[in-house]
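Comment thread on ticket #2218

A.B. wrote:
> Attaching the input chain for the structure job we discussed in standup.
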Amino acid sequence: MELILLVIHLVACVGILALVLLQQGKGSDIGAAFGSGASNTVFGSPGSASFLLKLTAFGALIFFATSIILGYDAAKNSRHKAALNNEVVLPQPVQSGDATNKTPSDLGISLPQPNSGS
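C.D. wrote:
> Ran it. Output below, let me know if you need it in another format.
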């Protein structure tokens, strides 16, 4: 289920990118402001939304929906795994006479020896 949602999410993401790059920007007719006529199109036509805009909005809806679902699923799984992996290993307490007056060599730890000055 998660893999299918992830694939849909990635396809929606790439689709939105492609659709946004295909659309003509609203400032594309900015030349009209400098005397080439049709000045009412400087900020885009006031007509109905184009097919590309509707398709982009649908892609964005799919992208947001899959984002929310994947985020909810990830949060649910992390809480569930945290509850299952609640196995904390605590160190054993040191007995009163075990570690007193012991040298590192007594514990099996070898320390580097200083070089003689030659």
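A.B. wrote:
> Thanks. Noting for the ticket: The first helix runs from residue 2 to 22.
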